[in-house]
Amino acid sequence: MWFLTELAERRIAEARDQGDLDNLPGAGKPLPDDEMDPLVPEHQRLAFRVLKNSGFLPPELEMHKEAVELALQLATSDTEITAEQLARLEQLNAWLSHTGHAALKVPAEYLARIEARLIRR
To answer: Which Pfam families match (predicted)?
Structure first.
């Protein structure tokens, strides 16, 4: 395994020396914050970051992601809001509330926009 590390370090050094790493987007700027961090207890962040980078999210964050995506779609779409979509959104919000993850519920501004669309019908 040491040879892979050595090979990677050598290639990075070569790219740096040839200027391939100069003027990359975001150069000199801090790395972006991990969007999961504020939602995950501090003592679990490292484990969740490893899982996230591997393509896995905790169930509550998957539910939150689905709820927000659905709410955004309902709040901004020109199509009719179906009873099934509203039921799913309510189900996701209820699950997040009842499992102690109320902070992960759909943002109030999306819910207000959805409500406004329903009232206009």
So the answer is: DJC28_CD (PF09350)
